[in-house]
Amino acid sequence: MVLAALALEAIIGYPDWLHRRIPHPVAWIAALIATLERRWNHPGRARKVLGVVALGIIVAVSAGAGVLILQVVPRIPYGGVAVTLIATLGLAQRSLFDHVAAVIRALNANDLAGARAAVGRIVGRDVSQLDERGVSAAALESLAESFNDGVVAPAFWLFVGGLPGLFAYKAVNTADSMIGHMEPRWRDFGWAAARTDDLLNLIPARLAGALLAMAGRGGWRVMFRDARKHASPNAGWPEAAMAGALKVELGGAASYDGVVHERPRFGAGPRPAPHHLGRGLMIFLGACWVMWGLLAIGGLIWRP
Question: Of 261, 241, 249, nearest to 182 (Cα)?
């Protein structure tokens, strides 16, 4: 089912015509998180405790939806196909490819403003001052990190826990992206989301780095050397693997909300150029293919 869901998502994604009519389910999770944060995250309250409770509600609702679907949908005609289609909602191969491809098209057309706008849809940093190399680096970093968050980790938890596992992971990952920050407003309320997301990504992030290194035919040395430089225990693995496979340098200074942050550097080559971004997208595709192949082999070998 995991392999079928990955294949279907790569083909159909979440079509724009459907998104215009029905927002992606991740938006529903985000709305619940925003509501709880707005009501509970106030000075003078036990923010850390309320953050734990909020995360418990978010995970319970999401995993519960997965359990309910598994209780009802398989009983209808073609229920197995329906469950597989529903599982595609937690995967983002197609979306990630399309977003990075849009950056590449703009760069190839010498449309720097368009490239900045395109990369601004997938990164949180300030993009208005980025040159071509800055845009390429930002897109590559997002591609590598999102390969884990949007592809490997959801597939891993779908394999481990079925739809409830997949939905629970997406709930935690969405909560981390919204409230799991170190700024004073979020530090206590988002603590549980950030720590839980770290835990759920421990294995997938390392798998993602390995898949990128295999697909890129290199990057192992850089990955093992530089991955732990990242402030996150997980994000450095796929990012360092991508830097090593491309023989470029990723990371370094970046501006967020007008403030320049010095980040660790991964790799020891030049700053990436647009052609490196194109090759990075091919490595991403290759890593997806490797993952599909391993799932296919595992499915032939494993007989529960």
Answer: 261
